[in-house]
Structure prediction request, 278 residues.
Amino acid sequence: MSTPLVVAATVVAVALAVLGVLSTVLRRRIGSAHLAAAGLLELLLVVQGVVATVELAGGHRPTELATFVAYLGSVVLLPVAGVLWARTEPTRWAGTVLGVAALTVAVMLWRLLDLWGVTGG
Amino acid sequence: MAEHAEHLSDPAPEPTGASADTARGPGRVLVALYAVFALAAGARAAVQLAVQFDEAPLAYLLSALAAVVYVVATVGLARGGRGGRRTAILACSVELVGVLVVGTLSLVDRAAFPDSTVWSGYGQGYGFIPLVLPVLGLMWLRHRSGVAAEQAADPGH
Prediction:
């Protein structure tokens, strides 16, 4: 796990959540800004996933390995699931759906970092 | 854009087959939140039951119950219709009672809850979302039930 990557991904996730809620407040559907932010978030998560996998293969052991791996797998899938689900929602609430997914990613990332242990930073 | 514009008005029209009445508009946000909690509570309960069940059997069984309730609520909301709404209302009610009872117990008897569950401290560890979610769920279901009843009384609507 890389702390700078977690911070970067958190910033993008929070920005995506704000964009999402904003589109709901403004009664708009999600647009290319949302998709771009979600894409960037996904990219950061995949990189993070690769980094963590390499370090796991290198012998690093987080506190709860099973939980860690399950979280890592889920967090990478979340933006994809969020986008797919938001795109089938024809109302202004699509943005908030995406926001929920984004905030969940942010929370899970910090939980992952917590499980990883400070030494891995 | 014209076809999108009509969808933007609230409340949303009855389903045209795409997705259930309770899983559209704000309901979709609820389903998303419930799905996240179903997964989070489920994963947590699975780990607790598998690895450390002996430490606090009551707390971990309640954790598992919470996970089941979230799954049932998610499915009920996602499916919608009369049956789905009824299922979701039951699940949300159990959830509300659960978070209040477990929340109180976890504050009164800390020894029985050494490891926080989703409902400990009224969902404190999860930003109190577990406390707010059933209330929002029940309000939304009540609203949808009202709309459905109106449409049943006036089919030409």
Remarks:
- DSSP finds four helices and no strands in chain A.
- The interface with chain B takes residues 27, 29, 64, 66-67, 70-71, 74, 82, 85, 88-94, 96-97, 100-101, 104 of chain A (CB under 8 Å).
- Chain A has one domain: 3-117.
- The helical segments of chain A are 3-25, 32-57, 65-87, 94-116.
